[in-house]
Amino acid sequence: QQQVKQSPQSLIVQKGGISIINCAYENTAFDYFPWYQQFPGKGPALLIAIRPDVSEKKEGRFTISFNKSAKQFSLHIMDSQPGDSATYFCAVSYGQNFVFGPGTRLSVLP
Amino acid sequence: GAGVSQSPSNKVTEKGKDVELRCDPISGHTALYWYRQSLGQGLEFLIYFQGNSAPDKSGLPSDRFSAERTGGSVSTLTIQRTQQEDSAVYLCASRFPGLPYNEQFFGPGTRLTVL
Q1: DSSP-assigned beta bridge partners for residue B56
Q2: What is the Cα–Cα distance from A25 to A69, expressed in whole angstroms?
Q3: Could you tell me the mean pLDDT of each successive run of 10 residues in chain B, 115 residues long?
Q4: pLDDT tens readout for residues A36-66
Q5: Interface of chain B against chain A, CB under 8 Å?
Q6: Residue B108 and residue A19: Cα distance in Å, rounded?
Q7: Exposed, middle or buried: residue A81 (CB in 10 Å: 0-12, 13-18, 19+)?
Q8: Three-state DSSP class for B55?
Q9: Angle, alpha carbons A83-A49-A55 (nearest 5°)
């Protein structure tokens, strides 16, 4: 099965700091790279997504950086806030197929 | 409008019993997915429905698992003869595949505990 590697498994950041989560994939056929945010007891919700024809996408404090040649992409959360504390999943998609990373548990300390 | 809903939110059952989990997708979303999320783990794909096409069952872990989708809307995931390793959160997601790069919308999940 296609695999998506995600790191770190957990992350602790001070309020105001930058949180960085990395993902790597294998299959170059993937053409959609979303990040999902999940709070305890809730389903994942789309946070931000990127297509492979751009190298960076920014939405507010959240930025995806995409390196097509390295088959890697990362999520940067600027000015991290305690309310950002959640589990973050990267995913890769082609057509109807979605493969999710194992998740990163982010804790932002006040 | 209403999002994806799932019921029950929690289900506790005894080993060997059958359970049914329900998913109501967003109206008009013809694609529906079931995933399993074990404690602290990522999302494991189980099954995918798209309109009237034959479902993609490639992720079902055993023949104890089955799912159906009636009328292209509501879906039911059935687990027969439950085992303790079936304990997990079962997530449903729907999607409108008519456009490229469409996101999945997830329900809140059903937490299944098998004693």
Answers
A1: B48
A2: 11
A3: 90 98 93 90 90 90 94 93 96 82 87 97
A4: 999 998 999 999 999 988 999 999 999 999 9
A5: 4, 31, 33, 35, 40-43, 45, 48, 50, 56, 91, 93, 95, 97, 100-101, 103-109
A6: 26
A7: middle
A8: coil
A9: 115
Q: Which of B104, B105, B111 to mutate to test the interface with A (most CBs of A within 10 A)?
A: B104
Structure tokens that stand for B107 in this block: 């329900």
From A99, which residue of chain B is nearest by alpha-carbon distance? B45
* CA–CA distance, A43 with B110 (Å, rounded to integer): 10
Q: What angle do CA A101, A73, A99 make, to 5 degrees?
A: 30
d(Cα B67, Cα A11) in Å, to the nearest integer? 36
